[in-house]
Amino acid sequence: MPRIRGDGFRVESKQASVRAYDERRSGHGEGAGNHPVVVQDRRRKKPRQTGLSLAEVLVASLIAVIGIGALISAFLTGRFAAEGAKHWTEAMNVARARIEHLKSLPYRDLSSVPAVTTEGGLVLDQARNGNFVPCDRVTTLTQEDDGITIAVEVSWRERTAGAGSASRAWDLRTWVAHLGK
Predict the structure, then answer these.
(1) Residue 88 and residue 169: Cα distance in Å, rounded?
(2) Run means of pLDDT, 10 residues per run, the chain, 181 residues
(3) Which end of the chain has fewer CB atoms within 10 angstroms, the N or the C?
(4) CA–CA separation, 66 vs 73, rounded Å?
């Protein structure tokens, strides 16, 4: 097999067609030798390719679509996470408001409040136009020897990334001492 040098010439041993060429030129017969002969490579070099092939364009488009899809997914996930954090904060404020209201009552009035109170129809995320999140608040008062434990749970359904939703709940507890003893 011929070897191609960097300058466009190929090196061949004196075989087949090269031997015949050499014998015609040199005038020598059969025993002219087997030394290497350098001849110019007459093969044409391919013209430099310009532009992109269809396959390259399709692969680049596929990579771009996958990347853009990943970015959109990341933005949506971040948006739902931010809304979820906002709802957690609002649920904590709804629970805290109930506990502060109950703690502001005198102890004798507090002991007359029902043990379990359920309030439905409360709203998280009221600022949005028509896209509010309904929640329920359950207040439990537990009488103890030296005070009352107040537990408030706020529950709601949170939209998640995709088409689903998940139940969420925030539980806040405090204890009110009976100072009359």
Answers:
(1) 8
(2) 59 54 57 56 69 91 97 89 88 93 88 88 74 89 89 91 83 85 52
(3) N
(4) 11
CB atoms within 10 A of CB 161: 14
Q: Among 181, 175, 169, which residue's Cα sits nearest to residue 140? A: 175
Q: Alpha-carbon distance 150 to 115, whole Å?
A: 9
pTM: 0.60
Instruction: Give one DSSP letter per residue of the chain, joined into a string.
Output: --EE-TTSEEEE-S-HHHHHHHHHHH---TTS----EEEE--PPPPPPP-S--HHHHHHHHHHHHHHHHHHHHHHHHHHHHHHHHHHHHHHHHHHHHHHHHHHHS-HHHHTTS-SEEEEEEEEE-TTSSS--EEEEEEEEEEEETTEEEEEEEEEEEEE-SSS-EEEEEEEEEEEEE-TT-
